[in-house]
Amino acid sequence: MKIALYGTGRMGRAIEEAALRRGHAIALKVGSANAGTPPTGCDVAIEFSRPAHAVDNIRLCVEAGVPAVVGTTGWNDRLPEVRELVNAQGGAVLWASNFSIGVNLFFRINRLLAGLMDGRDDYRVRLDEVHHVHKLDAPSGTAITLARDIDLQHAGYTGWSLAPAPAPSAAPATAPAPASPAVAIGEGMAPATVPIHSERTGEVPGKHSVQWTSADDRIIITHEAFGRGGFATGAVLAAEWLADPVHARRGLFTMDDVLGRP
Q1: Cα(145)–Cα(44) distance, rounded to whole angstroms?
Q2: Is 131 a catalytic residue?
Q3: pLDDT per position as a tens digit, 209-229
Q4: DSSP 8-state class, residue 41
Q5: Please, are residues 146 and 127 in contact by the beta-carbon 8 Å criterion?
Q6: Residue 43: CB partners within 8 Å, gap ≥ 6?
Q7: Residue 245 confidence (pLDDT) above 90
Q8: How many CA atoms lie within 13 A of 193 on its CB side?
Q9: d(C-alpha 147, C-alpha 193), whole Å
Q10: Catalytic site residue 135?
Q11: Among residues 53, 131, 197, 208, which one is catalytic?
């Protein structure tokens, strides 16, 4: 495939390496110096730029008739606008908050566990995510996806909230403190938000934990990335799926479509 790469930062470079390993060519690189360049003549575009540029780049690709894989986060409030554009133009866009195969399997485990916890008001949930200091958004798109899925599977929660950062002088805890409990629906009170605790430190590629705590025990599921390779390879696999010449794919897709919906 001939790939147009929107975004030339760390992830862009990792995606280029993954694409070349899989026998593809980077036909176009778009950064700040040539912003607004359409992906003319390319088979697929991969977009990992900045939240402020993501929708403009998606529009460029859809109007050029080039399928687009989008990994930039922080623009999801404009998803209805993108869906309308894709439907009107007959385009193909695949977006995800995280393209790592491991993370997408982690999403499924999170949904299963949240469903099992539904109705068990003795357990309460919290999310923790840690990323490198260069990450622009907090909480991460991955954490928001995890919280959204808990919301969908558990009647005791609706929406999410970003927990305040601990004071710099605070002593480190040996284990994260549990969040406020979800309110039992039977009590006639509103559900709680899913609390997300975000930390930005060093060069951490990404770590996400979901914990359910009761007075008696705690269940924790965690995904930890060792580098950007898993994210980059997943994005290239998604591009191969979206631009498969055997299937004329049109519409808005996610990694669940790539992996096969459970």
Answers
A1: 25
A2: yes
A3: 999 999 999 999 999 999 888
A4: T
A5: yes
A6: 1, 2, 3, 66, 67, 243
A7: no
A8: 9
A9: 9
A10: yes
A11: 131
Catalytic residue among 135, 154, 208, 223: 135
* pLDDT 10s digits, 64-85: 999 999 999 889 899 999 999 9
Please give the structure tokens belonging to residue 255. 């990694």
Q: What is the pLDDT of residues 114-145, one digit of tens each?
A: 999 999 999 999 999 999 988 878 899 899 99
90: Cβ contacts below 8 Å, ≥ 6 apart: 250
Where do we find the tokens 């996400």?
208
Give me 110's structure tokens. 């999170």
**Is residue 104 within 8 Å of 81, Cβ to Cβ?**
no
Q: What's the token pair of residue 102?
A: 């491991």
Q: 161-165 long-range contacts, Cβ below 8 Å, gap at least 24?
A: 161/193, 161/194, 161/195, 161/196, 162/138, 162/196, 162/198, 163/126, 163/195, 163/196, 163/197, 163/198, 165/198, 165/199
Q: Which amino acid is at 24?
A: H
